[in-house]
Amino acid sequence: MPTDPMLSLRVKLDQALDLVMSQRGHVVVPITAGDTSMIPHLRGGDAVLAIPPTGPPARGDLVLFGQQDYWVVHRCLGPVVTREGRRGLRMRGDGRNVLDPLVVQADVRARVIALRRGGVWRSLQGPFARVYAQLVACHDLFWASVGVVARQAGLGRAVAAIDLGLLRLAVPPIFPMIHRRITAPSGSGPDDTV
Question: Which of 42, 52, 82, 87 lies in disulfide reach of 38, CB 3.0 to 4.6 Å?
């Protein structure tokens, strides 16, 4: 019986992730070069520190989830029930003006608790960081909704530019004030990532 090579690769990646997290309690995952889906929070060459999920992600959490034969780090915008009655999680990359396809809880592999931007590690934990994450999630959901209507009117690019422009203005000054610097976690070197 032939097997789907993408499914086989995904299973192997998930097993490797589970093994590293079971041994260390966390995993450092690099962001693929050229990836812009989480700009301005993350870009290719940055990295995230993730831990096993302890339950469903909260609105605003950055989560690592499986999609086809790779992992994605995007923001959780909250639970959703589709018109067909399917339950899942609504996700979006901050740098994109479209929502991801429905993500089921079983595909969520880890919750991001810190990120490395420009060589500096910053924690995503704490009450102010939580409020920040929820505000970004509200921004993402609002502008993705506006984008749906705008695309029907032929204004999708303009709305996407406004959406990303607002984030590019707000994130650089606010993010470092709210998210404290932390020391590099074990497993954050080039030979210690998954």
Answer: 42
81: CATH: 2.10.109.10
CB burial class (10 A; 0-12, 13-18, 19+) of residue 21? Answer: middle
Residue whose entry in the numeric block shows the structure tokens 């009450």 = 127
Residue with token string 């998954």: 194
Q: Please check the confidence at residue 158 and state whether its pLDDT lies above 80.
A: yes
Structural domain contains residue 193 = no
Collapsed DSSP state (helix, strand, coil) of residue 188: coil
Structural domain contains residue 183: no
Q: What is the mean pLDDT of the chain?
A: 90
Range of the domain at 169: 5-178
What's the rounded Cα separation, in Å, for the pair 171 and 188? 24
Q: Write the DSSP symbol of residue 107.
A: G
The tally of domains found in the chain comes to 1
Looking at the domain assignment, is residue 20 inside a domain?
yes
And the tokens for 147? 């984008």
Is residue 98 assigned to a domain?
A: yes
pTM, 2 dp? 0.88
pLDDT confidence bin for 4, thresholds 50/70/90 = low
Contact 76, 137 (CB under 8 A): yes
Strand residues in 27-161 grouped as ranges (E): 27-30, 47-51, 62-67, 70-81, 87-92, 108-117, 120-123
- Tokens 């034969």 found at: 69
DSSP code, position 86: -
